[in-house]
Structure to design on (752 residues):
């Protein structure tokens, strides 16, 4: 088979380019540590999520503090809201902490994307998506369902509020305090 | 001799396939402009935001499945008959046509039922607002899935006609090399047979019985994986016919001949081997799939760059050769001396140029970790409107200006419209697609009727969100105008009377480096098919095995109407 000299040069350059691309991506995942969404979240029954009887934190989704600087956010996506996340219940996390999102669906396939960040995962019924991140800058980040999930898909947004750690601790105390007050009140009523 | 006089029966098949393709293109383009104006907020009077998704489903199915499959069937029918110099087995080809048309009608009726208030037909609501990807557990009317399956089964039968033609030709020509156009058609069809197995299993084994209520649950991740097993190779089913045109016809239109026949064969074999084991790159952000398999898909995807980069070289070299044959000179000034006023030529060239840009944004999509920034944003439709919507669609329209006269014996009418049409398409796409790519970087999602939210606002990275929306609307409108211009030319040509002599013919000049220089092993389809299947087993075997280990239908989801 005859291969023209120019073709050989072009072929060599093309292969070099391809190997280069693969190398940069491999470096991104091994060297820089851009982790992939994978099967680490495990499986779950979508009907149990829908009925709230999974026996896991998904039955009471929200932000759970695991250790000093590690928070796990359990989010249930359903037509057409994130719980928590949508409307007036934004996901609130402290700046600088390690945050793991565990997201699952109660009905159809949704998307979970925090705008202008690398947090971007499909939410597939029966599967738990697990992504980790650290927000260094306080502020409000947009949260979007980016997979068509039904007639009101375009209303399925939300937000992630990242607050300075001191403020976050104070709010937590207030919440704890008001919970304690409420409990005390209930006891007093009895 | 004009093609239609040499092969009247085959010409009639090609004409029928093209007419269905053009009707689908017209309706699909109308749905496209409705969407572009609605989601950008320029004009929202056509549909409600809830019905927007019906329009979007129609746009995707009619253009990405019906227009493409029928046009490709027509083009391939012509290419096989032309290069083997014989009529195609017309009974097989006609039954393929009618099966595909039945499927199209079923799918189209079930989609349009969504706008007509979803009447209950045979115990199921007649609607299919499930988009082109129809992810379970969102459920469409069973007719939608049956229709989609028939379109694919029809295309399989069409392929049988090409293979039968080859075997008949082989009996008369036992020692000759397979002609290049037929070689390309058959390689594409082998790739298509292998890759459509995924969607056929998804639809026939799972979605049809599930939508009919015969089984209660399907596994959303498993059916989704079967869809994407087919969902990326289908892209090459659109692209390889465009390559067939660029390799075998475009050099002639430029006044020259193909640079290298052997390399063209190598490129098509590479597509056969590498097209299918890449589907996981659509599932980089899916849970439930180990990252190692995503990495394998990524490397395969990157190596798919190779045949496209080789094509870029060969096509440009062949066109340059054509220009020099016509007396052009200089390093770049030969570009000026190409027939830019011939729509078949200019359309193919502009399509190729756009495809280069689409290739670059595709690299971002394929980059496993960079993909996180743009996955499911409007960047993605920005990308595939360059590849499918331009590399394929503009090539199809352009080559119709050259092919339709030959299969009808009628001269091309409305030449003035035809000359400008590829440029209108090119400008419309440049405006729309660049804005879509930039909007994607700002995080604006795809597939949504109203891209604003109560909780927050998007901010443009380069340019404002308002300006991007306006560009998408203007670009979408120009594309609609381009489609209408094309359809006017085609309608006028098809309805005209025969008369006069044609300025085009189907003769293809010999390549500079002919088939004799290519190793015989390239024609060994059994070998290449076996290697292709082996690669698929490596890429798909273990992850599919682990998905079905807990039961084929678990973790399961019952159907959810949309």
């Amino acid at each position: 088979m005859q291969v023209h000299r120019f073709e050989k040069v072009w072929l060599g350059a093309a292969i070099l380019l391809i190997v280069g691309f693969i190398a940069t991506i491999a470096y991104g995942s091994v060297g820089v540590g851009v982790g992939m969404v994978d099967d680490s979240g495990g499986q779950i029954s979508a009907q149990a999520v829908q009925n709230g009887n999974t026996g896991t934190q998904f039955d009471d989704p929200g932000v759970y503090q695991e250790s000093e600087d590690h928070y796990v956010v359990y989010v249930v996506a359903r037509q057409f809201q994130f719980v928590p996340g949508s409307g007036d219940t934004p996901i609130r996390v402290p700046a600088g902490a390690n945050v793991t999102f565990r997201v699952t669906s109660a009905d159809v396939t949704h998307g979970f994307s925090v705008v202008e960040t690398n947090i971007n995962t499909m939410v597939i019924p029966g599967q738990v998506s697990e992504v980790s991140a650290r927000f260094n800058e306080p502020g409000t980040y947009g949260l979007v369902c980016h997979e068509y999930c039904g007639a009101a898909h375009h209303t399925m947004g939300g937000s992630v509020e990242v607050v300075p750690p001191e403020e976050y601790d104070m709010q937590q105390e207030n919440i704890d305090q008001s919970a304690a007050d409420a409990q005390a009140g209930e006891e007093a009523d009895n | 001799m004009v093609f239609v006089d040499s092969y009247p029966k085959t010409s009639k098949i090609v004409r029928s396939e093209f007419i269905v393709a053009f009707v689908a293109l017209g309706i699909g383009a109308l749905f496209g402009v409705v969407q572009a104006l609605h989601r950008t907020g320029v004009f929202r009077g056509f549909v409600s935001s809830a019905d927007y998704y019906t329009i979007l489903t129609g746009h995707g199915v009619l253009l990405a499945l019906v227009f493409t499959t029928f046009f490709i069937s027509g083009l391939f029918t012509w290419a096989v008959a032309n290069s083997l110099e014989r009529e195609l087995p017309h009974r097989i080809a006609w039954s393929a046509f009618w099966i595909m048309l039945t499927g199209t009608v079923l799918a189209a009726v079930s989609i349009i039922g969504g706008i007509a208030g979803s009447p209950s037909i045979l115990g199921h609501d007649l609607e299919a607002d499930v988009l082109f990807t129809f992810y379970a557990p969102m459920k469409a009317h069973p007719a939608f899935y049956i229709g989609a399956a028939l379109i694919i089964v029809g295309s399989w039968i069409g392929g049988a006609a090409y293979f039968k033609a080859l075997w008949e030709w082989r009996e008369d020509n036992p020692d000759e090399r397979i002609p290049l156009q037929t070689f390309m058609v058959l390689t594409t069809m082998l790739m298509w047979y292998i890759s459509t197995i995924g969607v056929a299993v998804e639809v026939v084994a799972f979605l049809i019985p599930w939508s009919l209520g015969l089984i209660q649950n399907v596994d959303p991740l498993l059916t989704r994986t079967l869809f994407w097993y087919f969902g990326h190779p289908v892209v090459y089913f659109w692209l390889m016919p465009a390559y067939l045109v660029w390799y075998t016809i475009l050099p002639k239109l430029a006044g020259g001949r193909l640079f290298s026949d052997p390399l063209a064969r190598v490129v098509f074999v590479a597509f056969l081997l590498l097209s299918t084991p890449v589907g996981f790159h659509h599932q980089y952000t899916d849970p439930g799939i180990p990252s190692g398999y995503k990495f394998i898909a990524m490397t395969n995807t990157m190596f798919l760059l190779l045949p496209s980069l080789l094509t870029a070289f060969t096509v440009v070299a062949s066109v340059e050769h054509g220009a020099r044959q016509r007396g052009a000179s200089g390093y770049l000034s030969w570009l000026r001396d190409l027939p830019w006023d011939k729509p078949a030529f200019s359309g193919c060239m502009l399509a190729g140029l756009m495809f280069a840009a689409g290739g670059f944004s595709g690299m971002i999509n394929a980059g496993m970790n960079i993909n996180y920034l743009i996955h499911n944003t409007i960047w993605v439709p920005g990308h595939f409107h360059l590849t499918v919507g331009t590399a394929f669609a503009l090539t199809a329209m352009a080559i119709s200006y050259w092919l339709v006269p030959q299969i009808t014996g009628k001269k091309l009418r409305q030449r003035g419209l035809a000359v400008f049409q590829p440029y209108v398409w090119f400008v419309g796409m440049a405006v729309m697609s660049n804005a879509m790519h930039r909007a994607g970087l700002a995080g604006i999602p795809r597939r949504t009727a109203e891209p604003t939210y109560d909780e927050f606002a998007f901010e443009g990275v380069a340019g404002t969100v308002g300006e991007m929306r306006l560009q998408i609307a203007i670009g979408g409108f120009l594309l609609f105008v381009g489609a209408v211009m094309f359809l006017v030319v085609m309608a006028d040509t098809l309805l005209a009377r025969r008369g006069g002599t044609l300025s085009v013919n189907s003769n293809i000049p010999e390549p500079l480096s002919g088939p004799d220089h290519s190793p015989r092993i390239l024609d060994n389809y059994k070998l290449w098919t076996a290697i292709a299947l082996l690669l698929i087993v490596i890429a798909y075997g273990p992850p599919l095995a682990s998905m079905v280990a807990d039961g084929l239908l678990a973790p399961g989801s019952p159907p959810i109407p949309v």
In short: Chain B has 18 helices and four strands. Residues 28 and 59 of chain B are 5 Å apart (CA to CA). Chain B has a mean pLDDT of 95.
